[in-house]
Amino acid sequence: MIESSLNNQYPVIISLPHSGTKYSKFFLNSTQLTKNELQLSEDSYVDILLLNFLKKNISFIKTNFPRSYVDVNRHPFEIDPLMISSKIPNFINSKTSKTISGIGVIPRVSVYGNEIYNHLLTRKEIIRRLLQCYFPYHKKLKFLIKTLKKKYTNILVLDFHSMPSSSLVNDTDIVIGSNYNLSCMPAITGLIKNYFKSYNYIIAENNPYSGGFITKSLGDPLKGINVIQIEINRSLYMNEKSLFKYKNNMNILKNNINLILTKLTRDISDFN
């Protein structure tokens, strides 16, 4: 369900919460959408873009299950009451913007608003998914953070995503989310921003994405835990409807990301 690796040679962790591509027969048989329709909700190919950097034995964690099955970048109780067949427990966060939109921890709709199921899910099924997928991801990520913190004063978690170009009001290439400097030291955020700018990428900060649950719940720069969400414009490297990869564009972006993160990893040592 989850892939991860620990290497305390560097104070950096890569998080890939929406890169899972393994669709079980159980899930495909339970949904009314096609696999291709479900794949449109993925952060497509972000793990491939980071492949060269991850070969350097950087600590990382990645989901294998798709985001449309369980979204680990949500609060665990951010559950849409419209999709449960039984009585809703009191602890469920049914009034958040995510649950109201149908994109809670167990999504009711795809990112394009299509209903994933034509039936209600049981409370037992939701709990099973949380226990099998959600909590193990967060337990492992917290373990990686705790282990690196034993060695380093400051660590950096880079939570990588991709974003549809339709969500942007301009030609932004990269959105850096620091929860308005609450999840990361401004100096580190500035480093990341400047490195991407040096490769001529158009950068936005905290708009329209300031960081999801992972960024906001784990980032605590006063304790040396810096978490940044990085969103990459999908139109830079793929056809967003057909999911076709633009090979040359992807290779250029992959190489640039590798160079940027290699420099960043080196410079993070200045904060320790």
What does this structure look like?
The chain has a single domain (2-26, 35-67, 136-271), classed as Zn-dependent exopeptidases (Aminopeptidase, 3-Layer(aba) Sandwich). A 7-stranded mixed beta sheet has the order 1-3-2-4-7-5-6, sandwiched between helices. Helix 7 links the parallel strand 5 (174-177) and strand 6. Helix 7 packs antiparallel against helix 9 (247-268). The protein is α/β, with parallel strands linked by helices and 272 residues long. The chain has helices at residues 25-30, 35-39, 46-49, 51-54, 97-101, 123-149, 186-198, 213-218, 247-268; strands at residues 2-5, 12-16, 59-63, 155-163, 174-177, 203-205, 225-233. It has 9 helices and 7 strands; from the N terminus they run ββααααβααββαβαβα. It is globular.
CATH architecture tag: 3-Layer(aba) Sandwich
Number of helices: 9
Major beta sheet summary: 7 strands, mixed
Strand content: 5-15%
The percentage helix is 25-40%
Strand order of the largest sheet: 1-3-2-4-7-5-6
**Number of beta strands:** 7
Distance between the termini: 33 Å
**Number of domain modules:** 1
- Decide which structural class fits the backbone: alpha/beta
CATH class: Alpha Beta
Rg is 18 Å
Outline, from the CA principal axes?
Answer: globular
Low-confidence sequence ranges? none
What would CATH call the homologous superfamily? Zn-dependent exopeptidases
CATH fold naming:
Aminopeptidase
The average pLDDT is 95
Summarize the helix and strand pattern as letters.
EEHHHHEHHEEHEHEH
